């Protein structure tokens, strides 16, 4: 009995150490969107053959005139143009009281496959990536 309790205690301790020591997901990087404004990119799950909404959460106050947020898409395990419609240079206008989401089209095929991913990369004025959102494509077949 004592041997079993020690084994159980050691197993529980090993499990706890594994959980604590596992790398945690990175916090979403803030996107500057004005003097008193930060946007937080959020990931999205989308289905094939549909428009997909990728949300952006705003912290603070957007400028009255709005804010132009440059973005582009990048391949992950999904690739354009077979899996989604590529955007090489896009601009999302963030406006107070407006919709705070980016829409991309997810292509469809007749092949059954596991979930695939691609990225939305948000850029600063110099074209550097400041934040990303991961889009997971679910198979509609």
TrEMBL record:
Residues 67-139 form the Calx-beta domain. GO terms for cellular component: membrane. Keywords: Calcium, Repeat, Signal. This is Calx-beta domain-containing protein. It holds the Pfam family Calx-beta. It comes from the Bacteria. One of its GO terms (biological process) is cell communication. Residues 1-28 form the signal peptide. It comes from Catellatospora bangladeshensis. The keyword Flavoprotein does not apply.
